[in-house]
Design brief:
The complex is a heterodimer of chains A (about 290) and B (about 260). By secondary structure, chain A is an all-alpha fold. Helix content of chain A is about 80%, strand content about 0%. With about 260 residues, chain B is mostly helical. Chain B has one domain: MetI-like fold (Orthogonal Bundle). The radius of gyration of chain B is 24 Å and the shape is flat. The chains are: A mainly alpha (about 290), B mainly alpha (about 260).
C-alpha cells in the first residue's frame, strides 16, 4: 500500500465527506427565519420612506402621505414635550378600570358556571349572544346611559374583556382534574376549598389565555369608545388629527396603543410564569 | 335472572341545556317587563320588551330596517369576499413556501396584533363615506384571520399523507383534492368565523364615524332621537344576525368536520 492509501484507510470512517459545509449551513438555517422576517419589514419601511421621492405625486396626495421618519419624529415629539401623557393617562385609566372590573366579575362567575351545569345552561344563551355581537353596537346606548365621560368607556372595555375571561375560566374549570377534586372532598373540603385548592390553580393556563384575549379586546374597546363618545384620551387625539389630515399623529397613536397592548400581554406572561413555578412541566407553549 | 331494559332519559333530561336556556331567556324578559311595576319607567332611559316589540314591528313595516340592513350588508359581503379571495391564497403560499412564510410572518403578526380599527377614521377620510370606504375597512380588518388560518392550515397538513398519496402514484391534482384541501378547509372556515366578527365591527365603525345610511347609522340616529324602543330593536337585530352567522358557521364546522374538536 502506498502512503496515501494508508492515510485514507486511517481516516476512512472518521469524517464524512461534507463535514466542512455543515457548520455554515446550520448557522444560516438558524438565522434564516429571523433574517427574512426583519429584512422584509426593513425593506418595506425603506420603500415606504422613499416612495414620495421616487414617484411623483399630486399635491393633494402629498398632503395625506406620511413616511416612517415623520411618524418617528412625531412620536418622539409627543413623548419629549410630554403632550402624550395626559391623553394616554385617560385612556389607560379607562382600560385598567374596565379590565379590573372584568376580571373581578369574570373569574368568580366563570368558576361558578364551570362548577354548576344548571347555571351554565341558563347563562349560555346570554353569553353566546354577547360574545358574538360586536360591542360597538352598544356604544350609543351606553353613551345615553353613562354620558361621554369615563364610564361609557369603562363599560365598553368591561363588556369586551368580560367574555373571554368568563369563557376561558369556565373551560379551565370544566377541565379540572376530577381525581384531585375527589381527594380534597374526601378530606372534608367545602366548595370554597375545592375552588381555592384545585380548580383555580388547575385552570391557570386557561385563565391566562382568556386574559390575553381580554387585553386585546380591551384596547380595541378603548380606541373605539374614544373615537365616538369621548372628549379626551388618546383615541380622541387620533380622531381629531385624522380630521385635520395629520396622518402621522394617527399612526403614532396606533403605535402607542399597539405598544400598550404588547406591554400588558408581556406583564400577563410574567405573572403567569411567576404563578406557575410549582408546575412540574414548566414549559409553556401558550 | 336480571331483566335488561334500555334506560332512556326523559325528554326533559335529554334536552336539558336548551330547555334551561330558553327558560332563562323567558325569565329575563318577564323580569324586564315586570320590573317597571315597581320601578318608575323613564322612556328616555330605557325601554320594555312590549314597547321594543311594537317598535320593531313598526320598523319592519316601514321598510326602514330592511333598507338599512341591505345598505350595511353590501360592504360587509364585498369586503369579506375580497378578504377571503386575497387572504386565503396568500396564507396558503406563506405556508407552502417556507421562505415566504418566514418573510411575511412577523409583518402579518404586527398587523394582526395592532388595533387596526384605529385607522378607520383615516380610511373613511381617504376613501369616502360610501360603499368603497366601508368595504376597504372591512377588507383590512377581516383579511388577517384568513391569512393566518390558511397559513396554519397548510402547516397542519400531515406530511405522511402527502407521501402516501405520492407513493400510490398520485399527481398534483390528487394531492390537492385528497390531502391539502380537506386539511386546510376546516382552518379556513374557522378563520371565516373570526373574520365575520371583525367585519361586523368594521361596518359599524365605518357607519358610526361618517355615514348617512346603514344599520349602524340607524342605531346612532335613533339614539340621538331618544327613540329607545326602536333603538333596542335595531341593537337586538344586529345581535341576532351576529349570533346566527357565528353559530351557523360553528354548526357547519361541527357537521362538516366532526374530527376537529375545538379550534
Amino acid at each position: 500500500m502506498t502512503e496515501i492509501q494508508a492515510l485514507k484507510q486511517d481516516f476512512a470512517g472518521a469524517m464524512p465527506a461534507d463535514t466542512r459545509d455543515i457548520p455554515v449551513k446550520r448557522l444560516w438555517q438558524r438565522f434564516e427565519p429571523i433574517a427574512l422576517g426583519t429584512g422584509t419589514i426593513v425593506i418595506l419601511l425603506l420603500v415606504w420612506e422613499f416612495l414620495p421621492r421616487i414617484i411623483p405625486m399630486k399635491e393633494g396626495t402629498k398632503l395625506f402621505f406620511t413616511v416612517p421618519s415623520q411618524i418617528a419624529g412625531t412620536l418622539w415629539d409627543m413623548f419629549a414635550t410630554g403632550s402624550i401623557w395626559q391623553p394616554l393617562g385617560v385612556s389607560a385609566a379607562a382600560f385598567t378600570v374596565g379590565l379590573l372590573l372584568a376580571v373581578a366579575a369574570g373569574l368568580p362567575l366563570g368558576v361558578l358556571l364551570g362548577r354548576s351545569a344548571t347555571l351554565n345552561a341558563m347563562f349560555d344563551p346570554f353569553i353566546t349572544a354577547f360574545n358574538a355581537t360586536p360591542r360597538l353596537v352598544f356604544l350609543p346606548l351606553l353613551m345615553l346611559w353613562f354620558g361621554i365621560g369615563l364610564w361609557s368607556k369603562v363599560a365598553i372595555v368591561f363588556l369586551g374583556a368580560l367574555f373571554p375571561i368568563l369563557i376561558n375560566t369556565y373551560e379551565g374549570v370544566r377541565n379540572a382534574d376530577k381525581v384531585l377534586i375527589n381527594v380534597v372532598r374526601s378530606f372534608g373540603a367545602t366548595e370554597w376549598d375545592i375552588a381555592r385548592l384545585v380548580v383555580v390553580p388547575n385552570s391557570l393556563p386557561f385563565i391566562v389565555v382568556g386574559l390575553r384575549l381580554a387585553i386585546g379586546r380591551a384596547v380595541l374597546g378603548v380606541v373605539v369608545a374614544e373615537f365616538f363618545g369621548s372628549q379626551d384620551g388618546l383615541g380622541v387625539v387620533m380622531v381629531r388629527a385624522a380630521s385635520q389630515f395629520k396622518v402621522d399623529v394617527v399612526f403614532a397613536g396606533l403605535i402607542v396603543f399597539a405598544a400598550l397592548s404588547l406591554i400588558m400581554t408581556a406583564l400577563v406572561k410574567l405573572l403567569e410564569d411567576r404563578m406557575s413555578r410549582w408546575r412540574p412541566e414548566h414549559v409553556n407553549a401558550n | 335472572m336480571a331483566k335488561e331494559f334500555a334506560y332512556r332519559a326523559s325528554f326533559a333530561q335529554q334536552h336539558r341545556k336548551v330547555l334551561l336556556g330558553t327558560l332563562a331567556v323567558v325569565l329575563f324578559l318577564a323580569a324586564w317587563q315586570a320590573i317597571f311595576l315597581v320601578v318608575p319607567f323613564d322612556p328616555l332611559f330605557i325601554s320594555k320588551p312590549s314597547l321594543i316589540a311594537a317598535g320593531f314591528v313598526d320598523l319592519v313595516q316601514s321598510g326602514e330596517l330592511v333598507h338599512d340592513l341591505a345598505v350595511s350588508a353590501a360592504p360587509f359581503f364585498c369586503g369579506l369576499i375580497a378578504a377571503a379571495v386575497i387572504g386565503v391564497p396568500l396564507g396558503i403560499v406563506m405556508g407552502w413556501r417556507a421562505r415566504v412564510g418566514y418573510a411575511l410572518d412577523p409583518l402579518m403578526t404586527v398587523f394582526y396584533a395592532s388595533p387596526l380599527v384605529a385607522l378607520a377614521p383615516l380610511l373613511v377620510i381617504f376613501f369616502g363615506v360610501g360603499l368603497w370606504g366601508k368595504t376597504i375597512i372591512v377588507f383590512f380588518l377581516s383579511v388577517f384571520p384568513f391569512i393566518f388560518n390558511a397559513y396554519a392550515g397548510v402547516h397542519a397538513v400531515d406530511r405522511l399523507l402527502i407521501s402516501v398519496v405520492r407513493s400510490l402514484g398520485g399527481g398534483e391534482w390528487d394531492l390537492y383534492r385528497t390531502v391539502i384541501f380537506p386539511s386546510v378547509l376546516p382552518y379556513v372556515v374557522a378563520g371565516a368565523r373570526i373574520a365575520i366578527g371583525r367585519a361586523l365591527i368594521a361596518v359599524l365603525v365605518g357607519e358610526f364615524f361618517a355615514a348617512s345610511e346603514g344599520i349602524g347609522y340607524a342605531i346612532s340616529r335613533l339614539g340621538d332621537l331618544f327613540a329607545l324602543d326602536q333603538m333596542f330593536g335595531c341593537i337586538l337585530t344586529v345581535m341576532v344576525i351576529a349570533v346566527v352567522l357565528t353559530e351557523g358557521i360553528r354548526w357547519g364546522e361541527r357537521t362538516a368536520f366532526p374530527w376537529r374538536v375545538g379550534r
